[in-house]
Specification:
Layout (H helix, E strand, L loop, with lengths): L1 H19 L14 H8 L3 H8 L7 H13 L6 H8 L4 E6 L6 H15 L3 E6 L4 H13 L4 E5 L5 H8 L5 E4 L9 E5 L1 H14 L5 E6 L4 H16 L7 E3 L4 H14 L5 E4 L2 H13 L9 E6 L12 E4 L2 H18 L5 E4 L2 E3 L5
Parallel strand pairs: 1-2, 1-3, 3-4, 4-5, 5-11, 6-7, 6-8, 8-9, 9-10
Antiparallel strand pairs: 10-12
Helix pairs in contact: 2-3, 2-4, 6-13, 9-10, 11-12
């Protein structure tokens, strides 16, 4: 009984405190300004506000100015997610690259970003890190993020898996990979012609024992290079004096070149998958006491910014990387807007002759 009396006293005391001392409350968030608020302030319908703010016209200059002024005074900010749901557009493009640390791809990304921004789109970038399984997962993840279209650079997935993954996207463009027009538009570098020019150049310089650092086995561009190399060597009555497949990095290029030098020490020229492999090959030659170009001539691919800064400066095949990114976005937007089957663009590399040959 005494215990119940004590509890009753405490309850009464708490009630008295609540009556005399207001309890603190969490500050309620400010109400979000809506199109309806802008419409009331401008004296027009919400539909008219929506048309003006989405640049669809249908209002006089005076009404348009009144709506814009009201929106500005109210600090109205549209909800991009809700707008995307209504229009079935996110104004976002997905872009996948194999390796963001490879100097080839930042220029492609910059070109794509410039073209996307000019068209009112955002770019959502994903790094595959040379992993085909991750590539498939990222293509699916970008679909969940409701991108309007997707660009895949130097895809590593096999054709069947790649085409299946892209089929669910509204529109797709592949860079350095071919696909049927119903699957994707394509921006393809004619690596076969570029590699052929590299071999012709070396043969003209008197080189006959030519070895190849061929890059990843899964690379479409690497396969195209090998086709051009083998065809042109055959025209000159020659064969490759060794082929090594490897990742497209400088460190792995050094290892690959060291292997070729050990297995075929009489080679007098080396054609590399890309400039990074070529940079590694130069280190391997120095370590072996082999002079460039006196004993071995060296050719890379891509013409990354470092290529002309090397000593000796690197002979390479130049690809217009920034323009490639720009054209990929333009092609993708065309396929999004018109659902056409405009297919692709072919870019022919330019041989840039420097000191390594």
């Amino acid at each position: 009984m005494v215990f119940l009396q004590i509890v009753l006293v405490i309850v009464i005391a708490i009630s008295a405190i609540r009556e005399t001392v207001p309890l603190s409350r969490t500050k309620e968030p400010e109400a979000k300004i809506t199109i309806a608020d802008v419409a009331r302030a401008a004296g027009v319908s919400p539909m008219t506000v929506s048309r003006v703010l989405n640049d669809q016209g249908g209002a006089s200059a005076e009404t348009t100015q009144r709506i814009l002024l009201a929106a500005n005074e109210l600090n109205y900010r549209p909800n991009p997610f809700a707008r995307g749901l209504r229009s079935d557009r996110s104004r976002t493009i997905g872009l996948l690259v194999p390796d963001i640390t490879n100097p080839f791809f930042p220029e492609v990304i910059r070109g794509a970003e410039d073209a996307a921004s000019a068209a009112g789109y955002n770019l959502l970038l994903s790094n595959v890190v040379e992993n085909s399984k991750r590539e498939g997962e990222l293509i699916e993840a970008l679909l969940r993020h409701r991108v309007d279209g997707i660009i895949v650079c130097s895809a590593r997935l096999p054709d069947a898996a790649l085409h299946k993954a892209l089929a669910h996207h509204r529109a797709a463009v592949l860079i350095n990979r071919e696909a049927p027009p119903e699957v994707a538009g394509t921006i393809v570098t004619d690596y076969e012609t570029g590699a052929s020019r590299a071999i012709d150049h070396l043969v003209e310089r008197g080189r006959r024992r030519i070895a190849i650092i061929a890059g990843p086995r899964s690379s479409f561009g690497g396969k195209s290079r090998l086709v051009g190399i083998r065809k042109t060597l055959a025209v000159h009555g020659l064969k490759a004096h060794g082929i090594v497949y490897c990742d497209p990095t400088a460190a792995i290029g050094q290892t690959a070149a060291a292997q070729l030098l050990a297995e075929t020490p009489d080679i007098d020229a080396l054609v590399c998958y890309n400039d990074l492999n070529a940079i590694g090959a130069m280190k391997a030659c120095r370590a072996a006491g082999i002079s460039i170009p006196e004993q071995i001539a060296l050719i890379g691919f891509d013409d990354i910014p470092a290529a002309e800064l090397l000593s000796p400066a690197l002979t390479t095949l130049r690809v217009q990387k920034r323009e490639m990114g720009e054209e990929a976005v333009r092609l993708l937007l065309s396929r999004i807007a018109t659902k056409n089957r405009q297919h692709g663009i072919v870019i022919v590399p330019e041989l840039i002759v420097r000191e390594t040959t």
